[in-house]
Amino acid sequence: MTSIAYNFTAPYQTPRGSAIRELAKLAADPSVISFAGGYPAAESFDLHGLRQAADDAWEANPLQCMQYGATEGLHELRDALLELSERRGIHANTDELLVTTGSQQAFDFLLRSNVVSGDTVLVENPTYPGALAALRLAGANVIGIDGDTNGIDADAVERVLSMLPSKPKMLYVVANFANPTGATLTRERRIKLLELAARHQFLLVEDDPYGALRFAGETVPPMRALASEVPSSEHWSVYLSTLSKVVTPGIRIGWIVAPAAVARRCVMAKQVSDMCSSPWNQAIANEYLRSSRFESNLPGTIEIYRARANALSDSLRQAFGDNLSFAKPEGGMFLWANFQGKLDMQQLFDNAVTEQVLFIPGSQCYFDTRASNSLRLSYATSSPEVIQQGVARLHRAYVKTV
Amino acid sequence: MTSIAYNFTAPYQTPRGSAIRELAKLAADPSVISFAGGYPAAESFDLHGLRQAADDAWEANPLQCMQYGATEGLHELRDALLELSERRGIHANTDELLVTTGSQQAFDFLLRSNVVSGDTVLVENPTYPGALAALRLAGANVIGIDGDTNGIDADAVERVLSMLPSKPKMLYVVANFANPTGATLTRERRIKLLELAARHQFLLVEDDPYGALRFAGETVPPMRALASEVPSSEHWSVYLSTLSKVVTPGIRIGWIVAPAAVARRCVMAKQVSDMCSSPWNQAIANEYLRSSRFESNLPGTIEIYRARANALSDSLRQAFGDNLSFAKPEGGMFLWANFQGKLDMQQLFDNAVTEQVLFIPGSQCYFDTRASNSLRLSYATSSPEVIQQGVARLHRAYVKTV
Question: Which of A148, A339, A356, B2 is spaced 20 to 30 A from B94 at the CA atom?
């Protein structure tokens, strides 16, 4: 047999991608308690309402559901998403919005149509591993800027910008209940980032999957909404969101609000990438958003997350005391915790696997491969009782490790 | 106001993309008869069966429908698609198959994970404009090789390969009822391409959206099926297909069969691109393929295409006589025709728009911008009666042009 030598030049092999996939395999074992995933709470899905929306969408126009649709998205759904964005303070018109297959695809299209290999992209450090993977595969020159419990440090962004030899293409940030830190960017920092984006002319990309899942504290408007207060910044402000966490990921509906010239390029990316998102799924999303069930189901969803966040915070405090520091989440799905003192995190992770509990080691969320005593814990998918058990297991793993 | 200067370095602005989008706008006018689109016949959709499949998928496991799923695809659907591929002569295992959002996404992932800017990709000339757009945006060095009524000229491929300074990454071909030419690649040429792929070590990518829509002539096995006859070629053979033309595009389900190492890279691309295809849509596809309605509905679908292909062929022959040459289609959706003698194709197109009939000018399907007296006509979306009217309009436009 001739030897097979695939000459893979594209950088599509990342050890972290494999690590995440390994985690997913471990998490599939029902006796494992996983704080590692990014799945939303299945108990929050309004199954009855979604089923009704599917029936209504089909009744209204089965052929529209089953035929190709416009690449930008179903007209009615784009209007519904414009209205939803409006309720979040974002004024936009149809030319500035397109439907995507989740907000992951929204970010992917932005990257593809704006960033070529070697272009600089700024991110909060740590940040969402899925964004890091996309950036790595795009060949971006990623610069991570540290954040704190108030989100990415906008002054540090300014300092980095003053030192960069050429301007970055983009700054990517999850401003509400960040993945992984759970932190929310303050209004002051948002305004500052908008000023920097307008001055240095880069795309300020806010990914907002979790913002509607707030159970404590005050809502801060999206940067795209605040752009009206900062001259010229609306030309550089991009908003990504999704129904995956507040309705269901099963229909894979996200959206982009961007300046029309940027949105047009994303439409081009979508055209070559998958033609259009499922017209039936789009029609279901449209019916659901217009049925008022979205608004009426959301408080119950938020309560689920509140109860789980409380269970996790309380259990951790009780089990670890001062050995573990974290800010109590005000919304979203994640709690970011730091162990005090020296700790072999790989050993902790291995012991946790033995104890049948999973988490994301903090180092996975940094673009640089810094040592980190942090861990990302999702409280989304387990009941308060299971969360307590999981924390007990995690504590056993910790005791074995120190 | 500061002037806005988006520094777009990524090549996401193609005049042809805009031209196609302009066409789509024109085609939306209900008084226009369009031979330009790539939509399948809506009358072929098994609405009752699809609705039943959706109900069954929901009944079986609503939470699975509404939660994220594995990036590779729903396990049951992958098995169903392996069985469907098997019925087409393709033996593969689970590691070699992943679910995509249509075959457009399948090609996109193959490109992203294998081709970097400057890499050489061979295509038939003319070829599917959607593939050309994806290749252009990927920055590929595209080499078009002419075909005839038997598909791409495999001897010409061999000559090109012998002259290339470095080996290509890929050869892309629609082997059955090609878009745009309608031609089917002969078995001999398929074998030859497999030999060349194995010898020169490039991915031989067969895109097969239409192969099951044969209404005349003999089926030729996919190259991935014939690979068993050509040593080592199975390591270089990739098969893409979709349910969009034989079931419905509304659920956006396609798939890739590729060597495991290549498939793994496509899974990585899917992970950063959209996490997973809609689990509900996947469950619907699975139920539908297993319900036997797929097989029982297909003959009726094929009859629809046969009747429309006949109507188009007969009307063209009657209206244009020897002024227009074409091979009568044996399957698929497209008829490729060439005008005899000199003709101003832009003028013909403009006159056709005035007469409210649309087609794709052949030049859109060439990577080079050669002059072409050809046009691509899709007979998929209009009834035989409407096709006759459309041809009468096209003939009036022609008479005004010559």
Answer: A356
- On chain A, the residues whose CB falls within 8 A of the CB of B67 are 39-40, 42, 45, 248-250
Nearest to A197 by CA among A145, A237, A146: A237
DSSP A178-201: -TTT-----HHHHHHHHHHHHHHT
- Residue B154: how many other CB atoms lie within 10 Å: 23
Domains of chain B with CATH codes: 15-44+297-401 (3.90.1150.10), 60-291 (3.40.640.10)
CB contact under 8 A, A273 and B133: no
Q: B302 pLDDT exceeds 70?
A: yes
Strands B97-100, B254-257: pairing is: antiparallel
Contact at CB, B252 and A119, closer than 8 angstroms: no
- pLDDT bucket at B190, cuts 50 / 70 / 90: very high
ipTM of the complex: 0.95
Mutate which of B4, B8, B12 to disrupt the A interface (most A C-beta within 10 Å)? B12
Tokens of B135: 């290749």
What strands lie across the sheet with A374-378, from one edge to the other? A324-326, A334-339, A374-378, A360-361
Q: How many CB pairs under 8 A join A and B?
A: 228
Q: Give the closest of B119, B133, B275 to A271, CB-based.
A: B133
Neighbours of A194 (CB within 10 A): 25
Residue B3 pLDDT grade (very low, low, confident, very high; cuts 50, 70, 90): low
Work out the pLDDT band at B2, boundaries 50, 70, 90: very low
**Closest to A272 (Cβ–Cβ): which among B62, B137, B269?**
B137
> Contact at 8 Å (CB) between B129 and B135?
no
Chain segment B70-101, per-residue pLDDT in tens: 999 999 999 999 999 999 999 999 999 999 99
